[in-house]
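Support request from a user on the community tier.

User writes: "When I paste my structure tokens into the form, the page sometimes reloads and wipes my input. The last time it worked, I copied everything first. Here is what I submitted, just in case something in the input itself triggers the reload:"
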């Protein structure tokens, strides 16, 4: 089909007012010579028909395409689509492996210690997230133990505690059998969204006439920590311990039973100094050296403290050069509100980061 024909379809000629003179046909005196007949057995050559490319019809400035052309990605899009498909499959496989690691049921109790000598480094939120991750992703019946009576674990739990560490310690001598599950759990506070139990410290502050008074004990001894830990270990296979801001006897007692150490911080000098000092000081203790050299650094991002990229990279390199694993937890407004931490109100990115953290911890548990 010629371009002239198409042009005629969409642009018909405009009739003129002057009539045209009809053509005169002149007769031919000599008729045409007829073709010679073909010889017997001769074949007629097939006509060669050139393929016809249908034109692209345009209207209103848009090309009319077939339905198949609309669905099929272009040549430039196909490699990108395959890349995204492979990446998604890799992410899903990594998540499946992390869930499998966290949901492992170990024959012996495993203990995670969360520590940093710098206050406000994020120890309590990290301890809650760690316990909740093992509860939600692993279903391992974890328990969170507060080794710092002056801490604020009770204020960050979704369900306020009705019992304390003092109550557990008072009853511990009589809790010597694993069959006493219900009795032992009666001295803990169950957190329904995170699927874990918690034992909080007994120290809290009251203010009277402008004077702050610390009620309950200010600290616990190493013997208290061991007694509470051994009692909980009878029925809880995974124990997370939230420590204070000092390398004191309770922290050393917790580290002596630990299988993994998690050090929370943010990429600022004071938090990194506290983490670095803690690791270097504890590395001097021979019995703790393997634990310290396999510690996990968790970066708790804070929106109110924006960290320059170059500064964050420099601090990260300090710890990765020590051979340590670094896990990033994105800023979560629910955690940033400094109120009770409820698993269901965390962002998906935060929960995925907790899964990666707990998977890294699980790999340190070993068999």
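"...and here is what came back when it finally went through:"
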């Amino acid at each position: 089909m010629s371009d002239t024909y198409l042009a005629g379809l969409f642009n018909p000629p405009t009739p003129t007012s002057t009539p045209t003179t009809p053509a005169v046909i002149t007769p031919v005196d000599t008729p045409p010579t007829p073709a010679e007949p073909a010889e017997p057995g001769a074949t007629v050559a097939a006509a060669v028909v050139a393929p016809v490319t249908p034109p692209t019809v345009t209207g209103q400035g848009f090309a009319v395409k077939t339905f198949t052309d609309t669905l099929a990605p272009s040549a430039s899009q196909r490699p990108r689509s395959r890349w995204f498909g492979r990446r998604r499959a890799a992410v899903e496989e990594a998540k499946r492996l992390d869930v499998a690691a966290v949901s492992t049921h170990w024959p012996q109790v495993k203990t995670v210690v969360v520590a940093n000598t710098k206050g406000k480094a994020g120890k309590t939120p990290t301890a809650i997230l760690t316990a909740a991750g093992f509860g939600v992703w692993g279903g391992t019946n974890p328990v969170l133990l507060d080794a710092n009576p002056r801490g604020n674990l009770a204020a960050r739990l979704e369900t306020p505690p009705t019992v304390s560490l003092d109550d557990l310690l008072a009853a511990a001598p009589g809790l010597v059998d694993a069959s006493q599950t219900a009795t032992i759990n009666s001295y803990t506070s169950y957190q329904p969204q995170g699927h874990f139990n918690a034992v909080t410290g007994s120290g809290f502050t009251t203010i009277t006439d402008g004077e702050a008074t610390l009620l309950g004990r200010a600290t616990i001894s190493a013997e208290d920590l061991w007694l509470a830990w051994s009692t909980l270990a009878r029925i809880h296979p995974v124990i997370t311990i939230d420590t204070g801001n000092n390398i004191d006897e309770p922290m050393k007692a917790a580290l002596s039973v630990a299988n993994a150490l998690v050090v929370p911080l943010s990429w600022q000098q004071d938090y990194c100094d506290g983490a670095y000092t803690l690791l270097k000081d504890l590395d001097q203790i021979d019995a703790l050296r393997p634990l310290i050299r396999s510690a996990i650094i968790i970066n708790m991002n804070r929106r109110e403290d924006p960290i320059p990229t170059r500064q964050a990279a420099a601090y990260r390199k300090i710890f990765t050069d020590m051979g340590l694993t670094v896990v990033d937890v994105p800023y979560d407004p629910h955690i940033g509100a400094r109120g009770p931490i409820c698993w269901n109100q965390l962002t998906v990115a935060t929960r995925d980061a907790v899964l990666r953290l707990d998977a890294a911890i699980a790999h340190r548990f070993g068999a």
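Agent notes: The reload is a front-end session timeout and is unrelated to the input. Residues 77-102 form the longest helix (26 residues). The first strand starts at residue 58 and ends at 59. Escalated to web team.
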